[in-house]
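Re: the request from the purification team.
They wanted to know what the chain is likely to look like in 3D before they choose a buffer screen. I agreed to run a prediction and write the result into the notebook, where they can find it.
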Amino acid sequence: MTFIALVSCGGGGDSSSSSSSSTPASTISLATPAGTQCANDFSNTDAFGNIPFVVKLPINASSWGCLVVDKANNQPVYSGSQSVRFEVRPGDCSAAASFNDCVNDRSRWEIFQNRNTSTAGQIITYEYAIYIPAQTQIQPTPKNGGYPQTILTQVTWECLTRNQCSGLGTDGFGGLAFLKIDYTGTLSLETFKDFNWTANPRLVIDTNPYNKWIKFRYVIKSTTASDGYIQIYVNDKLVINETRATLPNSNAFDTLAVGIYNSNISFAAQPWQTQVVYFDGFSTSVTGF
């Protein structure tokens, strides 16, 4: 059974959980600031909390794409003194051994929690806050008949080896929930009904998400059984509560990726512009059931 509740969504959003340590929006510059490249700073608990992130596509990844930045340098921070800043410029693309964005109509700078064991039997909680500074164009308008997409969070399932999930998702990988932003600036959540990319209607979170921190919490009962669930809270309010299997088999795992990920980039009717997004307040916890 799937139940989706709309609680204080849309409009201007609810920024009540924003930290008092945040830098005022009027002082945020989109110019690339000084910072430490994420790949050199993943042990930094101020920036990344207790989540063991790695770079999604490290081959030819830009040096500016993911930086740990400082409140003292006039950067927005949700908690502590540092946050994580993502920047994707037009023409940026990178690759991994198994996938190349440069030849697949994509661009991104993402980090993710790398796993090599099943999460079956776990209840996993992820938390973070996101800050999207006002920018002229977070995504270009689409061409007729085609739509680019920009994803800022992926909560996904994945098989330890591709042959364990033959015929499911895309080579043993698929989505549970995506946080997206479109050319109108609307921030929304999209979940999926099964393990083959059947999407539910999008849930609008905020039609004007700029220049404020928005907090997200994802709670996943990781199981092949029908009593699994994914719950999503926005600014501590439950907005999605779906009861469903969250693993295709007991050898698979659920995980998190964040950053900026663009697909179908050739479907844009206008040139892409530089995109900037910040994350902070990361944490994760695991309990059994």
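For the purification team: The chain is about 0% helix and 40% strand.
Please add any questions underneath this entry.
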